[in-house]
Amino acid sequence: MNQFNQQLNSGAPNKELHRCWQEQLKSYKKLNPDQANSYRAIVVGTGLAGASASATLAEMGFNVKAFSYHESPRRAHSIAAQGGINAAKNYKKDGDSTMRLFYDTIKGGDFRSREENVYRLAEISKNIIDQCVAQGVPFAREYSGYLDNRSFGGVQVSRTFYARGQTGQQLLLGAYSALSRQQNKGKVQFFQREDMLDIVVDNGKAKGIIARNLISGKVQAHAADVVILATGGYSNVYYLSTNAMASNVTANWRAHKNGAFFANPSFTQIHPTCIPVKNNFQSKLTLMSESLRNHGRVWVPKKKSDSRHPAEIPEEERDYYLERIYPAFGNLVPRDVASRRAKEVCDEGRGVGKTGLAVYLDFKKAIEDHGEKFIKEKYGNLFDMYQNITNENPYKTPMKIYPAVHYTMGGLWVDYNLMTTIEGLFSIGESNFSDHGANRLGASALMQGLADGYFVAPHSVMNYLASNSPDNNEKMLEREAFAQKIIEVEKNILDIMNVQGDLTVDEIHRELGKVVWDNIGMSRSEKGLREALEIIPQIREKFNTRLMVPGDKNGPNPELEKALRLKDFIELAELMALDALDRKESCGAHFREEYQTEENEAKRNDSEYAYVAAWEHQKDGRPCLHKETLRFQNVKLKTRSYK
Amino acid sequence: MKIFKALNTSVGKKIAMAITGLSLALFMVFHLIGNLNLFLGPEAFNGYVLKLKKLGFLIRIAEAGLLSFVLIHVYSGIVLWLKNKRAISKTPSYSITSTPRASRYTLLTGSFVFIFLVMHWSTFWYKFNFSKGNKTYYEIVLGPEVGFGNIYYTLFYIIAIGLLGYHLKHGFDSAGQTLAIKGTKYEKTYYSLAAVFWFWIPFGFISIPVYFGIILRLLG
Amino acid sequence: MNINLNIWRQTKESTAGKFVRYRLENIDPNISFLEMLDILNNKLIKEKQEPVVFDHDCREGICGSCGFMINGQPHGPQKATTVCQLHMRAFQNEDELTLEPFRAASFPVIKDLSVDRRSFDRIILSGGYVDINTGEAPEANLIKVPKTNADEAFLSAACIGCGACVAACKNSSAMLFTSSKISHLSLLPQGKKEAKERVLKMVATMDDEGFGSCTNTGACSAECPKEISQANIVRLNKELIKSVID
What we know:
Helix content of chain B is 79%, strand content 0%. By secondary structure, chain B is mainly alpha-helical. Chain B has a single domain (2-87, 104-219), classed as 3 helical TM bundles of succinate and fumarate reductases. In chain B, α1 (2-8) packs across α2, α2 crosses α4 (57-87) and α2 (10-36) packs across α8. The longest helix of chain B has 33 residues, at 187-219. The mean pLDDT of chain B is 91. Chain C starts with a strand and ends with a helix. The model of chain C has no long low-confidence stretch (mean pLDDT 96). The chains are: A alpha+beta, B mainly alpha, C alpha+beta. Chains in contact: A-C, B-C. At the A-C interface, α3, α5, α6, α11 and α12 of A face α1, α2 and α3 of C.
């Protein structure tokens, strides 16, 4: 195969935008519950997307095997989403519509996402709210008894549904309850604490997975007629991120190594309002809901290395840089813009705090204008959380915030049906690349996870299965492809256990994280990316020769789990650098220093880079790039401006 | 049947315990009113007992009812206690936390109260009904044989009633929650009544042995 | 600051465990409790010993994975805080801390401080949901819910299923956990349809799983990191009584 030649096709119907999904649904083949009963589906990951897909597939009659490395679906990291979920319900009658949500999302993603997918997402958003309310999700309500909405993250309408600062938790518990219901009916079999370590492709089709039981250490194959990955994002490649400790790329990476293309790996979102890093032992970063920017004002001292207490810095010596640069949007500019500007002022030496890597988020004016009670009602729990972590009172001194990695827009390449380039392998939720382009808007991750899981994947999976006769699952396990994979996985585990060097997994991971953060983080340059490509192989070498994993592989061994994940993160990091290097433009979260306007804004290059970069794994280790050209027929490509 | 299904659960048994417990506590009020006749002298007391006796088989039915309540209460309590024994880890925890004391000893206080009850029946109740001899009721109660004339018996009675109060303290608290009275508009009334039951009623009972068995004795 | 730790070490459910003493010196009081354990583990690995196994994931106090006893208190001494949100400044220099797993017969020990809480899932499985298929839902605003009910339901639904309530209870009862789900659904019109069966099924499952009975002491709420209130238990009781009466 020649490099750079394959044009990928999304397979979306060539219809008017608003008819695409309806037409596609109509064209899908169907199976009645009796027919469906003879098929088995494997769903890996039981967060929002995985749990909702498992439940819905089971309702349709399929037999679902759901896998999670957690003890319960309720532990998935979807639970930590704070802000809310968007839906174009237009309850506030403020002129919202499917078209408007579609446009905001496409624009927010800096015109690097597929029109048809985004429109479908906007369309389905309404059904999600209906479904969740019917399940008993306790969304916030107005005194009238109707659902409440708020405005969120860089949009000018109120379309965000929320449950205090715990929307993700409530939605996940809703999906978990739907899953439990099907489990009780015997349609879903839940495999807890099973870590997927590889995928089995037989005759070109995904037919199963290899998983390691995290308690017994036993490695086993599981077979099915279709495999759906709902395994989340890979922010932990940065070591420090707002993701949960166990979030990893392994399932996606294994799919990639078996033939699934990995799209836009360098599109990683940096969230502007996180609690800054304090010290070397820090294990994770904590996000503060971006709703704080509705009332907080971001500033740094005008002077460099100004070590005065914030209260001693007079108004005229403060630089409210977001309000200064973006008079129209002010503190409410999109995440990537706010993050990059924060980095910029810190790089200038105007950062605050001990490390100089923080900016102030000040509520003084809001407290003066609206009173402390008002602020307490709105943000009380966030303020408490901040105080608990930092031991500082944000009612008195301004909060210190700094950007942190939060979400990965990149992921497995999928077509309009959410199927990867491996037949019978689907990818849903954050694990695919599909809907957010180069930057995700606030309150739309939950929306995508549930849209994929409840409303899209179940139908497209049924369509796929209807054209394939059910395989005998028990006999399948005896096939060569399965036996071979088990041997590979066990060898990999043994290799890792046998190094017995002198560095812990965390030590190597921290080193990797630093390289990725410094070079493939908020701003990237050719020099930095080339440097990363030199250092990462050295880190891999360290991993192969100096890693120390104690204990036994046949039993609970968290160090082994982490090591297996780190190994894939190291390989992914290289691909991220390659991808960022290839994209010689700035767009959304991907900011290349060489490509910026005179005002330091991202400079897109639509004529050359309006494509999805989908990378194919090659045996020789040199990934091959395929492009899916993005066609924009319904929106005009514009330079994002928040001025 | 739903009711059996419900009673089969731990919560059902708690409800059974709450209802029987509260009923028995209510019975104590009538019992106490009767007992207080002792302060009015022998005629009043003996007359009161005779009046009750005239009710004949009605009293027997009431007694059978009370006994079955006691048995249901005790049975449920023991079943739950055994269940709880099995539920806790075989490895004891390093320390126990914020559990109120009264609730930790309900089974112990309950058992003591039960022993007392058995004794109470085998003495007063048995004598009143079957071996009164030529003594009056008043004389039995205050007499040296099984009554407050006996210092050991008196002390035992005081301790038992004291523990019963302690038992009721948690009992009322718990029943308020089990019967879903907490959180309703009756909560305040219920909890003020609870204090009457766990403190003032036992206090009334104890006042009798204290007066007749201790104070009068000390005064000679 | 220096810290002395007595940590429960147990290889698997069937073996006996014991306390092992560790000492950590020069700990920054501003790190989190789990970061302190990370440091200990890093040290143990370097000394070729097995690190302490404990459950944790989000480290934001919401996933419910973490949880063990510190000096006899689930999640340690700070009120309304999961152990991942606890910081070392909550302790004094040279404190002696005893760490042990949540103890209950229904939470068998997996290893060290990690326990198996699948019994909680099985309680939910038996009825902790509304019977509705995907796509069958009516328009969301056709269901009106009074704000007070919605707010109360949210407070009940905020339970993170960590198991601290069971560990705090002298009877290892799961009433607070079970009742929070029953309350959440019984407060909303969506949950009314199956209310009677739900309470009977979930309570029966809770019993079958071997949890103890509730003695209404309130220790669970006192230790709950999400401050789930006793009102939930009252509501469960009410639902059970209602299921029999009408």
